[in-house]
Amino acid sequence: MVKAHTTEDLADRLHSTAIRLLRLVRVQDAAAGIGPARLSALSVIVFGGPVSLNDLARAEQVRPPTMSRIVDALEAEGLARRHTNQQDRRAVLIEATARGVSVLKLGRQRRVRFLAAHLRRLSEAELKRIESAVRAIQKAMQQG
Amino acid sequence: MVKAHTTEDLADRLHSTAIRLLRLVRVQDAAAGIGPARLSALSVIVFGGPVSLNDLARAEQVRPPTMSRIVDALEAEGLARRHTNQQDRRAVLIEATARGVSVLKLGRQRRVRFLAAHLRRLSEAELKRIESAVRAIQKAMQQG
DNA sequence: GAATATATTTAGCAACGCTAATTAAAAGGC
DNA sequence: GCCTTTTAATTAGCGTTGCTAAATATATTC
Fold first, then answer.
1. Are strands B92-96 and B80-84 parallel, antiparallel or unpaired?
2. Which of A119, A126, B57, B91 has the fewest Cβ atoms nearer than 10 Å?
3. Model pLDDT, residue A144
């Protein structure tokens, strides 16, 4: 569980590190005044432009009825808006309100700044290594 | 949001990458037959030895009543056991059963193997960079 | 035009989060 | 040695977030 001589050992440590990292920054979300499912869905809405409910559910790895209710809540809180797609009137297009964008960006900023404060403990060389690793990890995760 | 000239940009990308990584491996948990809160608590119980309920709740960033119920479920499923601490009879000590240990390790293995399969797409040099970045990130996160 | 497929919602249930209040044991003050 | 206060856990009751099954409305296909 400690040595990283195999790819599987490295995967184990990378996995644990990702868990710890998100657990660390999650503490900042208390100040956001919005639950985790809503915050996460709002993120996809803000950065993914107008989205259909099905696509949004898929992106969040959640079933459509679950997402329908989350969007209800986001609408009730004035953070997102539904309007029917005119090309296919069965479907809805969901987009963020100005308030939704600002709530999301502030929440994200809190997390990121908190994490950045930790990273500043490291040397330039160490930061460069993380930068390069982030690129590699994203490459490994591309298309399934 | 794209360039990484500042520590904050790097934190942003690292944060996003961690989210995507965990979202990727989470798909494997469907086969575990146990909810995420229980699985995560079981992990602390297995690797953190016998723990009090309060400590377990703190480790999982959850309130004691929530953890009490999760431990109820783990006991009902035969994955963990409570017994009262003899030094302080208000407190309980929670530990994993043999079945709890095996359920956790299999679940973890599924996640880790899935992630390892993705990492094998990378070169040795890229894996070395990730290895080194993991160490740096853990260093940055040490003690708060 | 009828049958089928697709997008979303509604209904109802389980798991997980919370706060407030209760119970039981330990620790401290006098 | 009592009596108060503190601490550990649980119970009660509520809101959110996950699911499946069924309903509704629109598109598509034959």
1. antiparallel
2. B91
3. 67
Tokens describing residue A10: 């490295």
Q: Which residue has the tokens 């609408």?
A: A75
Question: pLDDT, tens digit, for every residue of A83-133?
Answer: 999 999 999 999 999 999 999 999 999 999 999 999 999 999 999 999 999
Residues 116-135 of B with CB under 8 A from A: 116, 118-122, 126-127, 129-134
E strands in B1-144: 80-84, 92-96
Matching residue, tokens 């690797």: B47
Question: What secondary structure does DSSP assign to A76-124, as a single string?
Answer: HTTSEEEEE-SSSTT-EEEEE-HHHHHHHHHHHHHHHHHHHHHHTTS-H
Q: Give the residue from chain A lying closest to B139, CA to CA.
A: A122
Whole-angstrom CA distances from A86 to A67, A71, A90 are 21, 19, 9
Mean pLDDT of chain B: 94
Check B136 against A116: CB less than 8 A apart. no
d(CA B11, CA A23): 15
Report how far residue B137's alpha carbon sits from residue B132's, in angstroms, rounded to the nearest whole number: 9
Residue linked to tokens 């043999």: B98
Q: 0.70 cut: is pTM over it?
A: yes
pLDDT tens for A18-43 read: 999 999 999 998 888 899 999 999 99
> Look-up: residue for tokens 């809805």?
A92
The answer to whether B117 and A7 have CB atoms below 8 angstroms apart is no
Token pair in block for residue B36:
């995420």
∠ at Cα A21 (B63, B2), nearest 5°? 130
